[in-house]
Amino acid sequence: FPIFNRTRVREAKCINKFTSQFFSFNCLQQLFMFCVHFLISQMNQVLRFLVTPLKTLSINYSLISQRDLDSCSCCLILFQLKHLGLRGVVLLDFDLMALRCLLMKVVSTLETLDLQGCRVNDSEVNALLPGFKQCTQISNVNFYNSDFSMPILKDLSHQQPT
Predict the structure, then answer these.
(1) What is the average pLDDT value for the chain, to the nearest integer?
(2) Considering only 18-27, 48-57, 127-136, 140-149, which range has the smallest mean pLDDT?
(3) 3-state SS track over the chain
(4) CA terminus-to-terminus distance, the chain
(5) How many C-beta neighbours within 10 Å does residue 88 have?
(6) In the chain, is it the N or the C terminus that has fewer CB atoms within a 10 Å radius of its CB?
(7) From CA 124, how far away is CA 113, in angstroms rounded?
(8) Torsion of CA 25, 30, 34, 39, to 10 degrees
(9) Rounded-to-integer distance, Cα 69 and Cα 53, Å
(10) Is residue 94 predicted with pLDDT exceeding 60?
(11) Which of 120, 60, 63 is nearest to 87 (CA)?
(12) In this structure, what is the dihedral angle of CA atoms 20, 52, 130, 108, given to the nearest 10 degrees?
């Protein structure tokens, strides 16, 4: 968006035009967004136009809002995810119940969870544990560059079903 003539109305029209393009991708199963900052608080619009269930959702080094996280937790198109990545998305100070809810809905399909650089701490990992511990297909988890304690790490490693 050019800075000199940027208005909320013009920005909204551009976002609508951009997100409506997803409707034409009727076989889309993988969505990767890297450094996408203009869609903050617009994830519901992006997901609304998807036609087929996603297998991969990767939102890397992008700005998201609590509203975006909440949208993901109730979007049917995401309930068959195999790969969820939020690399570099700082989740500090978010209510992670929405992410926990999403994890609960993909317990039988999720294989990888990438939260590298999300800076999650003990309380945030604790919020995710009930959903995470039920993900029976998960084989790869990345919490690199997070700030949680050794007891939480032990809880994470012992929560996986045998």
Answers:
(1) 88
(2) 18-27
(3) CCCCCCCHHHHHHHHHHHHHHHHHCCCCCEEEEECCCCCCCCHHHHHHCCCCCCCEEEEECCCCCHHHHHHHHCCHHHCCCCEEECCCCCCCCCCCHHHHHHHHHCCCCCCEEECCCCCCEHHHHHHHHHHHCCCCCCCEEECCCCECCHHHHHHHHHHCCC
(4) 50
(5) 18
(6) C
(7) 15
(8) 50
(9) 17
(10) yes
(11) 60
(12) -170
pLDDT digits (tens, 9 = 90+) for 27-77: 899 999 999 887 888 899 888 888 899 999 999 999 899 999 999 999 999
Position 21 scores a pLDDT of 85
Distance CA 133, CA 75 (A): 21
Tokens of 94: 């978010």
Structure tokens at 137: 């297909």
